[in-house]
Design brief:
Layout (H helix, E strand, L loop, with lengths): L3 H14 L5 H13 L4 H24 L1
């Protein structure tokens, strides 16, 4: 399992870099981990929460 997780992260990063709409999120997360010394796992949990929040708001916006 320890070898698969970094490979999965690398694959997701390569996919994200190609999408211009996700680039600010990628750069923001990178600098938060690098300069603010935020733990990578904490950033992953925070990113997941933000993703669910954005998806939920977009779903509610489409229904209204």
């Amino acid at each position: 399992m320890g070898g698969i997780l970094p490979a999965l992260g690398f694959a997701i990063t390569i996919m994200v870099i190609g999408k211009k709409s996700l680039l600010p999120w990628f750069i923001g997360g990178f600098f938060a981990v690098l300069y603010l010394k935020v733990d990578i796992m904490a950033m992953a949990i925070f990113g997941t929460c933000v993703a669910f929040l954005i998806k939920g708001l977009a779903k509610n916006e489409g229904a209204a």
